[in-house]
Amino acid sequence: MRFPSRPAVIATLAALALTSCGTGADSGAGSVSLTIAANSISGGKNSESADWIKRWVIPEFERTHRDVKVLFQPSGVDDEQYKTKIALDLKSGTGADVIDIDGIWVGEFAQAGYIKPLPEVGGATVEQWEGWSQIPQAVQSLGIFDGKKYGLPQGTDGRVLFYNKTLFAKAGLPGPWQPKSWQDIIDAGTRLKAAGVPVPIQIDAGTAMGEATTMQGVLPLLAGAGSEIYAAGSKWTGASRSLKDALGFYRQIYGGSGLGDPRLQQEAKGRDKSFAQFAAGKIGILAESDYFWRSVVEPRAGVAPMKDRDQVVGYAKIPAERPGAGVRGQDFVSMSGGAVRVLNPYSKNPRLAWDLLAFMHSAAATKAQLAGQARISSRADVNDEVLTADPMLKFVADEVLPLTAYRPGLAVYPQVSAALQEATAAVVSGTSPDEAAAAYQAKLEDLVGGPAHVGG
Predict the structure, then answer these.
(1) 338-343 and 98-102 strand pairing
(2) Phi, psi of 147 (to 5 degrees)
(3) Is 121 left (phi over 0), alpha (psi -120 to 50) or beta?
(4) From CA 41, how far away is CA 436, in angstroms rounded?
(5) What pLDDT digit, counting tens, does each position of 264-289 carry?
(6) Quick one: which of 108, 110, 81, 87 has its CA closest to 99?
(7) Is 207:422 a contact under the CB 8 Å cutoff?
(8) 158, 144, 135: which is closest to 361 by C-alpha?
(9) Does 1 fall in a domain?
(10) How far apart are CA 173 and CA 167, in angstroms?
(11) Do residue 304 and residue 199 come from a single domain?
């Protein structure tokens, strides 16, 4: 499928100077060099990842591959700058052998011909890799485009509903709490409101929240109503029943019911303010990723630390609109993000490059990268071992990741996401869900090449 709109990083490549970092065999007798590229640099951006590559991956791989020299090509720049650099290398047939990219770039790079499916590059042994059995199929989707495996997923995350157990007890609500439908969420919010909770429900909305609106709100709700924003090889979801239902849920919260704070969705720092309000016991239910648990309300070093987090903060799966109504007939849904590693199709040593990539995603390498931290990896065996001390992250790994979904890795997606944010902003401001959905569809058709590429 062709789309008329492509980001500047792809559209302007021909006008930019080509660069080369070199791949392939060394001039030294009997030796081969492989290169790893990542947007990480010691002492700067993603420093821990850079240190892991230099101090663990390279020496350990070279120890078992005596004739191989592994080089690291670090970067520490804005993501779009890194993306441009990698795209230039791949366009010119150069670049590193193993490359870190954001999962949201996979489809775009694949459509441009910059990357190829792993088995086409790495050979038959790719499908025999032991790691596939340890990565849930839903997580593998991060590196899949049009049904083909282009990359190996690194760490990932999951969206859930966080709730304040103290406020729930005040409202006479059960704990633990697991809603089974959207109505259950509304009912809980109604009870919280009656108990005097200032903001019963916070679901990110509007343009000020940016991608958080899309990932924490629209896409999980759309999945809960039975649709994804784009189905591989299919059409974009327009003003469908699923989208109207999702926008209708926003309307229930922000349309005068008092269940949510519409002003918060319009503030420049609204998301940060919602974090502070939750930590202060002023928000009852909050939709967020596990980032909220491990980095926002983390008791010691969080953005809005809660010393009693482990006792007060509960978490639940996001329910479908009603049981069985979610994507793939699921009762519960989620959305995830993350990075992947791909192979350069122009590598002069593609089989050996695959060996390096597979090694970087082995259980031993994954544990070494975590360095004792409780973080969700893509491997179930590693998660089972390292997450035992953190029940929330283990909950996400065990219960949420197997049913999660990912954003489409297509060039036009960021613009589609912005249009979805505008649709929620319109609903929060009083526009009906039907009108907001119709306006979204009109924008969507302009973005993706007309109504032929949009489903109802």
Answers:
(1) antiparallel
(2) 80, 5
(3) alpha
(4) 44
(5) 999 999 999 999 999 999 999 999 99
(6) 87
(7) yes
(8) 135
(9) no
(10) 9
(11) yes
CB of 428 within 8 A of CB of 254? yes
Interacting residues of 335 by C-beta distance below 8 A, sequence separation 6+: 158, 159, 215, 216, 219, 220, 223, 404, 405, 406, 407
Q: Using one digit for the tens of pLDDT, what is the confidence trace for 305-353? A: 999 999 999 999 999 999 999 999 999 999 999 999 999 999 999 999 9
- Joined together, the tokens standing for residue 97 give 């052998």
Residue 275 belongs to domain with CATH number: 3.40.190.10
Domain count, the chain: 2
Handedness of CA 372, 374, 375, 377 (dihedral sign): positive
Q: Which two tokens stand for residue 84?
A: 């441009």
Measure Cα distances from 21 to 18, 37, 57, 92 in Å: 10, 10, 20, 11
Q: Measured between alpha carbons, how far is 353 from 120 in angstroms, rounded to an integer?
A: 13
Side chain identity, residue 19:
T
pTM above 0.90, yes or no: no
220 and 71 share one domain = no
| Domain residue limits at 321 | 159-335+412-455
CB 153 within 8 A of CB 287: no
Q: How far is Cα 441 from Cα 456, in angstroms, rounded to an integer?
A: 9
215/312 same-domain check: yes
Paired residues of 151 in beta bridges: 342
d(CA 239, CA 248): 12
How far apart CA 293 and CA 295 sit, in angstroms, is 6
Closest CA to 443 of 243, 255, 263: 243
Question: DSSP code of 221?
Answer: H
Q: If you ran DSSP here, which 8-state letter would residue 82 be given?
A: H
Q: What secondary structure letter does DSSP report for 333?
A: E
CA 29 to chain centre: 44
Same domain, yes or no: 416 and 271: yes
CB 455 within 8 A of CB 444: no
Cα distance between residue 332 and residue 149, in whole Å: 26
